[in-house]
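cron nightly-structures :: item 1 of 1
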Amino acid sequence: MSNVDTPVVIIGAGPAGLTAARVLTELDIDYMLLSREKVPGENKACAGFIPSGALRDFGIDTLPGAHPVTTVRMKFPRQDMQTVEFGAKVGVNVSRANLGMTMLKHVGAGSGEIRLQTEVGQVTVKQSGCELTLHKQGQSEKLTSEIVIDASGVNPVSLKTVQLRERLPDHLMGYTAQYQMRRPSSMGALNGVNDFYYGSDFSPNGYAWVFPRGHDIAVGTGGLLRFFKEEKKRMFDYLDHLISHDDSAKAILENSEVIKRESALVPLAGVVQPSFTDRLMLAGDAAAQCCPITREGIHYSMIGGEIAAQTAAHAIKKRDYTAQILSRYEKDWIKAIGSNLKWGRWLQKKMVEPTSGGLGTSLMGSDRSCKIVAEMLVGARSVRATLLAAAPIYMAKKLRR
């Protein structure tokens, strides 16, 4: 395709898509970003925690509306609530709409065009180039490009027509149910402490969370989709039980009202390949760039979007859009975050297997191990390093092989 509308199309204005746009702007590569949302991230069900490393690495350490997190509390079955105080900020809680608008501003003016409230209906990849069908306000149009970075979410729009890989099965797909709650203005604001609740009372083989942002609070639960489908309870029943029966949650959420109910699919598959083909790369949730054990996806999506944009820029300069050139994308993102995805999946499997012997509880055998696990939850320690430091000796030997 000798004459295209734009060299690169980015689908999706989540952390992956907006990071890709910012990088392409910095590299002076023309692109067009398409998002069906009016406000990026506004309708994304997400707890909204961002580790300090992501804030630092991507220049958003002064994120407006962010609420610093300095403490983690964890509750495991048959154990008291464990508290780990870090003594310094380890990350922030933020609404996804606030994050999205901030990242949109950070893209800056330059070589790209951003079109919100525009839905991509179909992506066709040919030897000669890419063609996309767009829909906005009842009107349709065609758009052509050399490369597509698909960051459209856990069920990528491009996979409807491009034979790259199958949809993730239920045992590799997670489900999140969440309440956005609001505390009365007459009560004090909540900040600084993120709570994690493990056990079958709060989730079928996953965990629940309470992440405060002043007077707003994200209260959610998640686990593998397969287990949710096998359960008779509705997802929100777990949240209702947490809110009404757990003393620590009741103390936090007293008199708070639900202002929004939301749910979403989440990839919990570990390293999924392939994530590229001729002229196409998947990034963020579309590439399953989310840790299965911590459910950390924002930071990893930013990394995936950054590497996808760098790879696209290299291909544009080379005028070579083949899978051979784009293969560096997958090599680089796996090198950057693949270990956490791989070992996160391994640990997740061990924790949900009936024969695991309560591995999650065994990791919490001392104050030291509690701190190690808390460091993993806030992104300050890798999954593998956590297992080597906190797991039993026989497991450490297995990991060092």
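cron nightly-structures :: done
Residues 363-399 form one domain.
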